[in-house]
Amino acid sequence: MSTVLDAPSEARALAAPADVDHLAWLESEAIYILREVAGQCANPALLFSGGKDSLVLLRLAEKAFRPTRFPFPLLHIDTGHNFPEVIAFRDARAAELGERLIVRSVEDSIAQGRVVLKDPDESRNPHQSVTLLDAIAEFELDACIGGARRDEEKARAKERVFSFRDAFGQWDPRNQRPELWNLYNARVHKGEHVRVFPISNWTELDVWQYIERERLEVPSIYYAHTRPIVRRRGALVPVTHLTPPRDGESVERVSVRFRTVGDIPCTAPVASDAANAREIIIETAAATITERGATRLDDQTNDASMELRKKAGYF
Amino acid sequence: MSARDKLPALDNGVLRFLTAGSVDDGKSTLIGRLLYDTKAVLTDQLAALHKTSAKRGTALDLSLLTDGLTAEREQGITIDIAYRYFATARRKFIIADAPGHEQYTRNMVTAASTAQLAVLLVDARHGVVTQTRRHATLAHLLGIRNLVVAVNKMDLVDFDETVYARIVTDFREFARRTGIDDAGIRYVPMSALGGNMVVDRSVDGEDRLAWYSGPTLLEILETTPVGVGTARAGFRFPVQYVSRPSGDAGRGYMGRVESGSVRVGDRVIVLPSGRTTTVRSIATFDGSRDEAHANDTVTVTLADEVDIARGDMLAKATEPAEVARQVEATLCWLDERPLDVRRTYIMRQATREVRARVTRLDHLWNVSTQAREPAPHALAMNDIGQASVTLASPVVADKYDDAPATGSFILIDEATNGTVAAGMIR
């Protein structure tokens, strides 16, 4: 049918599962979901940040749609506080795939007065919602595909794979559409949209096992590297221009890796020597702390922080 | 359980199961116990658990692990299904945690639709009660062939074997009356609170259930065979999306094999149109294949230019499916607005959408008594009825029991776009 399909690389052939193991099952489900988006939605986009979950989504989209182009553009909501390595990786990956990447930035929302900060260096993570909803309106998107997983946080444990958002972008946990069998309902009226989560059923461990199996490249800061940090409230805080050391804190150089790579002011690394996916898998299996607990400073503030953000249109 | 034990070594794939029972049966505690004893609960969650338990003045309360949304905590209720994850060296598990009280039918039907096994919790003090029969009936109705009757709170009946034996006898009798195949039912006595027979047989070296020689709940979950593609229908390939590669390559029909298998060169029939052609190639991103089996997501090309769109289905010409404009179905009403037989709904079956009207209601199922009740005029939320559905254009009418993926459908209300009913073709 095409050279892409007729000439599998040896690596892929070796990695192909003999039976329906758990990764094959998860992959098949995710491909099915992506194709449902293509089949049901007029104007979808895939949210791509350069982070590991969205990189997994891109591989799944290749599996779903190659040799043709993706039936959706990639969209990144840039907080302006992202790690430069991740932004560079994002651009390189989009170019390599030859897919269209749209970037909308929280900086612009601030300049337009759509976002007002209390403190110029505060986390811009919650403010992404405004920029995202503006982008959804600008491109008249009826579906946004994202890499969120139900194991990340308890507010996500109850979310549908196809999750309805009203004209204000709001999620109403008490009024979700029942989701049965593989029958996903993406129907919306104008101005409404669905968020679609093809890897809802994956855990952090599954993601790393898939990265290893598919030999996916991820930004270097996911792997162990030496970085200046300070210790604050039990977390390691990277020393950056946005997060300078405070009075009385001593800066150490520690071998760390990031489990998530979000907005710099709310992303903390963990101490690690894991230099590749296999070592991360072993560390993840032995981990004693959750992904968000270890790395997301913003979720420590309130037991329901994620739930509140999601209701307001957050991813 | 060490870190390496959590890495799938013998990868038996994924088991999706649901837990049915009320808070009083210890369902949240059981799920908490499974997560805790398989080391799926991590330090920060545990710290939060200790903090909340202390605030409420209780010992470490594992049921808090499944505590959900703010609204639920405020009202002390569970409003929706939550999905939980854990893995052992043998399998990955997805738990659908369906609330027992609130809108139990709607939630239970939803959870059961994707589950291969149901854990029915029975309180050892109360035995088989209406709710147990209700949950078992719903699981059976949704085609779940593996039931585990978990007799919980054995600690409160002094781990008495005769109490357990009576409950097993009662449930067997109920299953026989209801037509639930005994071969698919397993029984296990346990104390989720203490941890007996959930993951470990004994607690602190003391085996209070020594008289029980069967497997623990986790061993049952790890070893129950749940083969993918056990559907009895032939090859079924609902077309999800049609790709048009540039150049002279033919159209690609993307989808997932829902049952049976197909090989390059097989004669296939396009349903519902009835045109036949031959499979030219089966492609995946990882290379082309000679054949595709159930659960494979592939792109199929065909020898002839046939008009095929999303919603059509490929079957083998040698094992064609029945096509019909009217189906008999079990309907579970899920919406607050009751069924209106004057209205037209959209039926989604696999990838096909057709307009549909409920033209006859035969009887209601009372899931508490397993009795048929006279034909109602409408179906309200949580009602389950037997109905005739008439369609604007034909669909493949596979029986749900033969092919769950193609024998199931939902009804959508065009005014709200909400999913208002779940249906199973009988």
Defining key terms:
heterodimer; A: 315 residues; alpha/beta; Rossmann fold; 2 domains; 6-stranded mixed sheet; 10 strands; 34% helix; globular; disordered N terminus; B: 426 residues; alpha+beta; Elongation Factor Tu (Ef-tu), domain 3; 3 domains
In short:
Chain A is of the alpha/beta class and 315 residues long.
Describe this structure in words.
With 315 residues, chain A is an alpha/beta fold. Chain A folds into 2 domains: 16-206 and 306-311, HUPs (Rossmann fold, 3-Layer(aba) Sandwich); 219-300, no CATH class. In chain A, 34% of the residues lie in helices and 14% in strands. Chain A has helices at 3-6, 10-15, 22-40, 52-65, 84-97, 106-111, 128-138, 204-214, 277-286, 291-295, 305-311; strands at residues 44-47, 74-78, 101-105, 143-145, 162-165, 193-196, 225-232, 235-238, 252-257, 270-271. In chain A, α4 links the parallel β1 and β2. In chain A, α3 (22-40) packs across α4, α4 (52-65) packs across α8 and α8 (204-214) runs antiparallel to α9 (277-286). Chain A starts with a helix and ends with a helix. Residues 1-18 and 298-303 of chain A have low confidence and may be disordered. Chain B is an alpha+beta fold. Chain B is built from 8 helices and 22 strands. In chain B, strands 2-3-1-4-5-6 form a 6-stranded mixed sheet, with helices on both faces. Chain B has a 6-stranded antiparallel β-barrel with strand order 7-8-14-11-10-15. Chain B has a 6-stranded antiparallel β-barrel with strand order 16-20-18-17-21-22. The mean pLDDT of chain B is 88. At the A-B interface, α1, α2, α3, α4 and α9 of A face α2, β2, α4, β7 and β8 of B.
